[in-house]
Structure formats: structure tokens, C-alpha cells
Design brief:
Blueprint lengths: L1 H25 L1 H8 L5 H27 L2 H4 L5 H11 L13 H10 L3 H4 L1 H22 L6 H19 L1 H12 L5 H7 L3 H7 L2 H27 L8 H18 L7 H13 L5 H30 L3 H9 L2 H5 L2
Length: 333
């Protein structure tokens, strides 16, 4: 786990440098003038909406643990500790595709002895239902910009393939059988096989529907937050539907780029699309809105996650088990 934390710190440092470079590239003075007189209550409201998103996502986490019957193996896992584990995972939001959020599975194994392979598929289900939610939210705004419909349809096809693969033990098992023939992948496949049962459980129609509904609600709050941030700039006239398209599409671009936290890809697409599609949005406004939106979501999550992780690791025994375990120790249940 220490390796994962170290890489995350490197990514955070890279993100800070990226933001500084963006500000210097677009010139500091126009950005300063743009933010002069900005109603900071809008940014505060975006932070509150992000907090609401985290609570909805915690509900997803709890439902997933219930469907996987995790508390049958860990009866001492309280709601409070589960919340701390969930929030600690937010500190890994800057990993590629947020896959570092398997930190939650590492922490559960260290504190309650829950097998890593039992809960790791929760991250996969979380990412997949996030993609579904983002596509649905983008569809709300694509009516204003129908030229983006082909891209939306292509994304729907990719998501549908993911649901079919992860929801079918026959298909998923067949893919692993073929991959196992490749000598270099045999070790990876052997570790992946125990994940099948949990993946299939979470991809059943009932769990998939509930997780998607909560994802739509959570990401919807972030879309509203971006709308409030953008609407705070003088002379800008954004519609909520268009902001839903911009934020969802920007997030999808970042996710599909597989860059850590979508850094650069999400911000770049937001700046370009906002400046091009939103009435009254100049380049400095588009940059400021994009940076504020990401600060209220990605970086706010990093802060909350870092605090939660520090609180969770206060127990010396848990800290020792979590920090000293090697990667292979987590997959050996």
C-alpha cells in the first residue's frame, strides 16, 4: 500500500504543476480580473453538492457490501468505520481510472480481515455504473448539441459491452481462459479468477439498477455544482442541461484517457467546450470555471480522503498491517 500512496503523492504534485502551468499559459492577469468580484458562495455551494455526492456514493458502497455479504465475514465492521474506509478511498481519485480506490479493499483486509478479492470488484462496478450515469446525464444535454450524438452512441456501446462481459460468468471466464494461454498473463489471470463471483453478483439487474440510480444522482449534483460555478461569472448564460453535457463529457474524456484523475484531459476538454459552447464564456472564464469545478470535486475529494485515511491509520496495529503488506499479500486470501 505504501507504493500506492507514494505514487498518489507524485500525481498530486504533478497536478499542482499542471494547474500552475495552465494559469501561466493563459496569463495570470486576465484570470485575476475574471475572478475579481466573483460570488464565492457559488464555489461553496459546489463544495456542499460534492459532499452530497460522497454521501450518495457511500450508500452505493454500503449496498455493495450488503449484496456481497461482507459483514458475515466482518461482523465488527461498523457503519462509522465503513464510512471512514470509503472516504479514505477518495484519496486515490487521482490514480488512472480511479483504480487506486481498491485501497478500500486493502483497508478492509487490514482492519477486519475481509478477503481482498471479495470487495475489489466493488471498484469495477462503481466505475461501470459511473460511466452509465455520465452517459445518461450527457444525453440530457445532447439535445442542445446534437452534433455530439455519435460520440454518445459509441460510449453507450462500450458501456453495454462492459456490462455483458462483467455480468456473465461464462463470457468473463472464457476471456480469462484465453488470456491464461499467454504466459506473461498467467499470474494476473490466476489472481483475477476469484473476482468473478463478486463481479457477477454486482452486475445482476437489481444491484446494477440501484447503483446506477445513485450514480446518476451523485454525478447530477456535480453537474449542478459546475452550473453554479459557471453561472457566477458576469455575462455568462449557461443552461443546466448544457452544463450537464459539458461536465459529463469532460469527465468521460478524462476517464477514457486513463490519465491519473483525468488530469489535463478533463480540464482541457472543459476549457475548450465551455469557451466554444457557453454564451458569454471567454477563455479566462472557461479556464477559471474549469479549475474551480475541479477544485470543488477532484481536489476536495483528495483533501477529504487524505484526512479520512490519516484518521483510519491512527490504530498502530491496522497501520502496520496495511503499510507493511506487499501487493501479493492482498490477493492471497
Amino acid at each position: 500500500m505504501s507504493t500506492l500512496l507514494r505514487r498518489t503523492l507524485y500525481t498530486v504534485a504533478a497536478g499542482i504543476l499542471l494547474y500552475v502551468a495552465a494559469v501561466l499559459y493563459f496569463d495570470v492577469e486576465p484570470l485575476r480580473q475574471t475572478l475579481a468580484g466573483y460570488p464565492w458562495w457559488a464555489f461553496g455551494a459546489a463544495l456542499m453538492l460534492s459532499a452530497g455526492n460522497y454521501l450518495l456514493r457511500f450508500a452505493k458502497w454500503e449496498l455493495s457490501l450488503g449484496w456481497l455479504r461482507v459483514r458475515e465475514q466482518a461482523p465488527g465492521l461498523t457503519r462509522g468505520r465503513s464510512l471512514l474506509v470509503y472516504l479514505a478511498g477518495l484519496s486515490m481519485s487521482v490514480t488512472p481510472g480511479k483504480v487506486g480506490e481498491v485501497l478500500r479493499s486493502m483497508l478492509l483486509k487490514a482492519s477486519d480481515g475481509v478477503p481482498f478479492t471479495r470487495t475489489a470488484p466493488v471498484v469495477v462496478a462503481d466505475r461501470l455504473t459511473d460511466l452509465i450515469a455520465l452517459v445518461l446525464l450527457a444525453a440530457v444535454g445532447v439535445s442542445e448539441r446534437p452534433q455530439y450524438l455519435p460520440v454518445l452512441i459509441a460510449t453507450v456501446v462500450l458501456v453495454a459491452v462492459g456490462v455483458v462481459v462483467l455480468g456473465s460468468p461464462v463470457v468473463l471466464g472464457g476471456i480469462l481462459d484465453r488470456l491464461e494461454r499467454l504466459e506473461r498473463l498467467r499470474g494476473v489471470v490466476a489472481k483475477a479468477r476469484p473476482l468473478i463471483d463478486s463481479s457477477v453478483t454486482l452486475m445482476r439487474p437489481g444491484p446494477l439498477a440501484w447503483l446506477t440510480v445513485l450514480s446518476v444522482a451523485g454525478w447530477g449534483l456535480e453537474c449542478v455544482g459546475f452550473w453554479l460555478v459557471l453561472d457566477g461569472f458576469t455575462g455568462v448564460e449557461p443552461s443546466l442541461r448544457l452544463c450537464a453535457l459539458l461536465w459529463s463529457a469532460g469527465t468521460l474524456v478524462g476517464a477514457l484517457s486513463f490519465l491519473p484523475g483525468g488530469l489535463g484531459a478533463t480540464e482541457g476538454s472543459l476549457v475548450m467546450a465551455t469557451g466554444r459552447l457557453v454564451a458569454g464564456a471567454t477563455q479566462p472564464i472557461a479556464l477559471a470555471a474549469s479549475l474551480l469545478g475541479r477544485m470543488a470535486t477532484l481536489w476536495f475529494g483528495e483533501l477529504v480522503g487524505g484526512v479520512a485515511l490519516a484518521l483510519f491509520l491512527r490504530d498502530p496495529a491496522v497501520r502496520h498491517r496495511a503499510m507493511d503488506a506487499r501487493d501479493e499479500d492482498y490477493t492471497r486470501d
